[in-house]
Design brief:
9 strands, about 45% helix, Rossmann fold, single chain, globular, 4-stranded parallel β-sheet, alpha/beta, 13 helices
């Protein structure tokens, strides 16, 4: 059973390139209003323990545009999530009889793995603390649309080590891209992902200096800072001050390549991890990136569900 629990579940670069080309085709066909119903008769279940303002609507819209249907469960609806009600493994086995695939945003990646073990249908990680593979493939697709040699472009990630950072490490192993991560704490990365990538020959470096990371980079990516929001006011101010030099702003971007692309998965906390000028500037593709979630997830679901390659 093929799942997409982490970016490493994509088996090789050839598969990834096929997904990119398929997403490009689907995006073009949608613009022409000529999409074929490749998911007709398929039902995609969505299980969300956390809020979503991009993943859920982009999956729902994408599946509908391909002729499929969706069923959405939130934690308040599911009632069965947790040993105090019904074990997740039991709920997974039942859900797997109703749907052809599950897109899940769980509070714990361990729970996502449990879901994949028992659902008996493909499970897609709709974001966990460990990875956000749909977003990571979308990031690459956004660059793929705009760079003549996307796999030869140097990438930099600046900020806290969120799931997207772990996914970019896996992406470096899959594609051979050169990746520099500027992190306030290097141990925030998943050590298993980092070791796996390096054993595959990935060109990944972790530094504490954002300027060193972005110097000459053709892509600069960041994500919202998670830790300040969990702190009390005094500690929050201290944490924000410590993170300030990891902000993506015009001064930092001045050290990148002239044709740098700025990525952000959104939502953005403007004035924290990224400034208004950087997010709204000519180098930013953050909002196009968000729009690309739809066609990329369509391509991923087709792949996981075994839609024939010749499908139009």
């Amino acid at each position: 059973m093929q799942h997409l629990r982490t970016t490493f579940d994509i088996p090789d670069r050839a598969t990834l390139e096929r997904l990119l080309h398929r997403a490009q085709h689907l995006k073009r066909r949608r613009a022409e209003r000529r999409l074929s119903p490749t998911l007709s008769g398929r039902v995609v279940g969505m299980l969300f323990e956390k809020a979503s303002t991009r993943t859920r609507p982009s999956v729902e819209a994408g599946v509908a545009l391909l002729g499929g249907a969706t069923v959405v469960l939130h934690a308040r609806d599911a009632h069965a999530l947790g040993e105090e009600h019904e074990p997740l493994r039991d709920a997974a086995r039942v859900l797997g009889t109703y749907v052809d695939a599950l897109v899940a945003r769980m509070r714990s990646h361990v729970d996502l793995e449990e879901l994949a073990r028992h659902a008996r249908v493909p499970v897609v990680n709709g974001q966990s603390e460990l990875d956000h593979p749909c977003q990571v493939v979308t990031d690459l697709f956004t660059v793929f649309e705009r760079k003549e040699r996307p796999f030869e472009t140097r990438w930099a990630y600046v900020g806290e080590a969120r799931g997207t950072a772990n996914g970019l490490v896996a992406l470096a192993a899959l594609t051979g891209i050169e990746l520099a991560l500027a992190l306030p704490e290097a141990d925030g990365l998943d050590p298993v992902a980092l070791a796996r990538a390096r054993s595959a020959g990935a060109k990944v470096v972790v530094v504490a200096d954002p300027i060193a990371a972005v110097r000459g980079a053709g892509v600069v990516s960041t994500d919202a800072w998670a830790s300040p929001g969990a702190l009390e006011q005094g500690a929050r101010a201290t944490r924000l001050a410590a993170l300030a030099r990891f902000q993506v702003n015009d001064e930092l971007l001045g050290h990148a390549a002239d044709d740098v692309l700025v990525l952000h998965p959104l939502p953005a906390r403007r004035g924290q991890e990224i400034t208004d000028d950087a997010l709204e500037g000519m180098r930013s593709v953050a909002f196009q990136q968000a729009g690309n979630r739809l066609c990329v997830q369509q391509a991923l679901l087709e792949w996981l569900l075994g839609v024939p390659a010749e499908a139009s």
